[in-house]
Write a structure and sequence with these properties.
The protein contains five helices and no strands. The chain has two domains: 2-92; 94-125. 78% of the residues lie in helices and 0% in strands. Pfam families: Iron_permease (PF04120). The chain crosses the membrane at residues 12-33, 45-64. This is Low affinity iron permease family protein.
Amino acid sequence: MNDFFTRFATAAAYWCGHASAFMIALVAVLLWAATGPMFDYSDTWQLIINTSTTILTFLMVFLIQNSQNRDSAAIQAKLDELIRTSLAANRYIGIERLSEEELEALREKCLQRAQEPSGERNAAE
């Protein structure tokens, strides 16, 4: 089931990012708006677009979050590999799992080191 959802989410996110998907949505809204006078702008007529857009938005949130989670994990793995194979400190691998307080302390430490003259920084590392 998880593999199916991943493949579906990838395909849906890819397709929804195309101009043709936007054009289809735009045409649907224009057709809905054009039928307003025919339905005398009734509550049912308004409910159709409200319900449709709410359902689509609700479902798209999950697809977008899945795509972002996978992209974030892939980028993190690439960064970890770059750190591992470079002269950078390996202690930074996996820091995405630190608490917010630990990350903030690390950011502060990095900021302080970045503001030191390069000779002092190299001696401290």
